[in-house]
């Protein structure tokens, strides 16, 4: 065989087998890059080309077939050499191994930089990529990757955190059952609902169960205690509709009324929990502040004629939830439960209000979030799959995520199974007592429901279980008895990826060997700067035509729709709100995530307030200084969006490689250390600037972007790189074949450096394959 010799870098770790080390050495020797990490030793490694090895064996095999004696002599000649090599290995290993490990620790301790790894090829090999394009060859000496300080949440946690965490690790917790079903058994009259407080109220109140905490508190207390006696660990407050918005149906949409309801409900639930905890301190009980979905939807229009219309705004729902949360916490709840989510945007408004409340009061309490799959389509009422729902709300870092209502246990199993796989927190479910009968009632009894729920436990899917519609204390007793013999689901980690969503999840897992294969097409045609047709449609108020453009982009391969309304002829905030509301109502368009794009922060936030999915926010920068940058970043994080950071600072736009790297590293440090942004959700745009202008200072802009991309991704682990690709060839406007060749060639080289996504014409990107560019044209393009 033909042996090769080259200098390689080998990293030792306790978790690494000798096979791993050998594999990495072979990859280095054959010119393929392996992982990254601290240098552990620099040694001469010898790797045998596997193709040559197979060839040598084939020759020996054929010789043995015709001349066994000669073949045997070959083995006898080479055997002493092999034996000598083995003996040297045995003798040298005890000496060299400790030296190598010690040398590695010294290099790590002093923060040694990387050394250039020479590319070694056999005689006759074709020129390598960096031989052909030396301008984008990585530098030999690299600065060490900075050590970033892990983010520490400045808010302290309540005592309930550790207690609930401890219980969920040991056993399956039990949540109470339906309040409405229990109230129906009392056959209360209109007079009972009114009580003395509402005796002269102008609107009927029967059916408004939430006011019973004020007019019939003894009934609610009795129901609470029945559930606790049946074995419930978590008791929900009777506040499903205790918001200003929901109470408007009963003409009780006054702050003092809603505050009194939540306060009284929280105190009743907490008192019952305290009573039962005192009876058995080994089984603590917890009052959960129930936060319902309200009777409004932020993602669905109540008007068939106007799909962009909404009955209320995001801010109105946030305010209503904030008032509810304030009273629930004052009343003594141990945790918060955002439940029966049929519209994820409503849930995001609740999370926004919760985070706002936590920050204002300096304390964080356990948060459970429960979605509702409305039928066997596996989607919420507003159209999201349950994994897309998880991607949209996981920025809240809930203690537990789950599903409730709409379905019986049997129908809920596949959706809980999927949620259990994709969620890295605890998981719960509280299904209905089967499906409703023709009269809307529920016939399934406790033991039967418990048997239907057993499959959850057999599959190891849950950490908590309870009941929704149709369930009573009998059902909860049966569930508590059934789960008592089962171990809880084990919490697990999930792969660290950028996870965004529209109606469907989009989990970006880059192909690090070829980023072009996993390149994210950010469709540019809903950007007024990227499409004159779209701009004209918006200026003319023809939003149906604008919607058709969005649909066409998705059909042509856009993974994300970029939406930008920045133009002097357009009211950006109003147009953004109307268009995103319209897009959300069109499933074929809203199945993909949105990139909400504007240089004006209030316009971007208007778009984020209309999208139930996890968006990409484009963009923020250091242009206005660190204080403004951090303020904007915290708001984006609270909305749960990924963020694009432009390479601007107080001194202006970054043009050179060094400026791009410096600004992006500074922004990354602020985001991960002071804001707690997930690095996977940080996307840098190092500015694709126009080349071929005839001005000498512009000549290196393309190369600077490519080299900066590689270095930013090395120094800012987990980050992504994006850019407006059409900016590159503005100087060739009007010459479409040349512009398209520029875009294709640029993406080829930028993706080799690690570019993840770009604002592009999705159809052209799919059609314009680098290998198909006219060779003469390509040579000129690459020269530029």
Can you offer a commentary on this structure?
- With 784 residues, this protein is α/β, with parallel strands linked by helices.
- The chain has 28 helices and 24 strands.
- It has an 8-stranded parallel sheet with strand order 4-12-11-10-9-7-6-5. The chain has an 8-stranded parallel sheet with strand order 23-22-19-18-17-16-15-24.
- Helix 9 packs parallel to helix 11, helix 11 packs across helix 12 (314-330) and helix 12 (314-330) crosses helix 13 (344-361).
- The longest helix has 42 residues, at 68-109.
- Mean pLDDT is 90; it is low at 1-48.
Percent of sequence in beta strands: 5-15%
Shape: globular
Taking all Cα atoms into account, the compactness measure Rg is 32 Å
DSSP summary, beta strand count: 24
* Integer average pLDDT: 90
SSE-based structural type: alpha/beta
Biggest sheet details: 8 strands, parallel
Strand order of the largest sheet: 4-12-11-10-9-7-6-5
How large is the count of helical segments?
A: 28
Distance linking N and C termini: 43 Å
Low-confidence runs of at least 5 consecutive residues: 1-48
Helix content: 40-55%
